Amino acid sequence: MLRLTTVLLTLLVPTFAFAQGGLDAQYRTFLETKMWPKAKAAGVSRTTFDNALAGKKLNQKIPGLVTPGTSGTPKKIRQAEFSQPSNYFNERNLGSIVATGRNLLKQNATVIKSIERKYGVPGRFLIAIWGRESGFGRVAIPHDAFEVLSTKAFMSTRPELFQGELIAGLQMVERGLASPSQMKSSWAGALGQPQFLPSSYLKYAVDMDGNGKPDIWNSTVDTLGSIGAYLNKFGWQEGRDWGFEVILPNNISCAQEGPDNRKTFAEWARLGVKRVNGKPFPKIEMNKLGSILMPAGRSGPAFIVTPNFYVFKEYNESDLYALFVGHAGDRIQYGGSPFKAGWRKTDSMLRSDIASMQRNLEKMGMDVGGADGLPGFKTRRSIGDWESAHQRQPTCFPSNELIRAIK
């Protein structure tokens, strides 16, 4: 009993009280006393557990880590989706994905047609996601997945999530779907060419080439099929597009953004919303619902998006990511150019400072979607509402000046 109490107290002591050796000891205790019982209950053998995790060490270079037993918002994070919109839509990067994707769409036409028939998702979006996630399988994926997942299970901002992903990764090995050495991942723990977390692999990866198991590391067919299966399972609406760049009239505020403020395309058109290319909205969309999207507030283009846009967000929660793959997919198949409105440069901000601003807005009774330091649509429109209430022209996007002003 005394030994158990000592272990529990050790797990609750803040990290700064330990030298690196002490933290490593906490980590080993965590794996043995918490993760092994979970793995065993999930059908993982001791041999698999040891083969996957023996000799693994904490990797404190991974972004988004916090002291075990505490909560917090990391100041910085390296993921591109959390950067400035103007940087994310760098035409050199986007144009390269479009040019390569156009060739790959043609080269894989037969396979893509079969995936489209099975899952209803247009091939251009399968290609765009493949390109965005792993450079069409050409980008090196350098990290040991079990090192990443076990580190994040121990000391990330979402330990329960990564504890589940660590168990799912062990189940993959237990079932013979991958070897520990094959389990290479991003710093976020995502695997293979479509960058699936282990739980997503177990749920959505498909064996399209018929070799007996889904191979998202080496098989283009399985990679594209798995992306299609994933989007299909999350509700892709066949026959609909993802959205359209628009011009919003002055009577429509950026604070009206969001999927819970949907109207039919016909209603948006009656309110004066127009496509930037001057064409009418497709007839198939007119009686269906769409919502405003302004991922940079008034500092970037505006869109009316369909539910399929939010299916992209099931793949990656970032608005910028979903917009990127939709736009890139369209240009891969149809050609075209960058968004008409362009992106104005926004402030460089710490994620922790945005989270502090979000907490201040929450204290005022506003729904910001959680104080996570990420300016999602609920945060953007809450900023717009605050600006209107303080006689400011709504910008609907955080800035360093707004972070100081919203107290």
UniProtKB/TrEMBL annotation:
Gene3D superfamilies (alphabetical): 1.10.530.10, Bacterial muramidase
Superkingdom of this protein's organism: Bacteria
Protein name: Membrane protein
Organism lineage string: Bacteria, Pseudomonadati, Pseudomonadota, Alphaproteobacteria, Hyphomicrobiales
UniProt cross-references to Pfam families, sorted A to Z: SLT_2
GO molecular function, one term: peptidoglycan lytic transglycosylase activity
Signal listed as a keyword: yes
Classification via InterPro entries: Lysozyme-like_dom_sf, MltB-like, MltB_2, SLT_2
NCBIfam families per record: MltB_2
Signal peptide residues on this chain, from the entry's feature table: 1-19
Every Transglycosylase SLT domain range: 34-330
GO biological process, one term: peptidoglycan catabolic process
Cytoplasm keyword on record: no
Keywords per UniProt: Signal
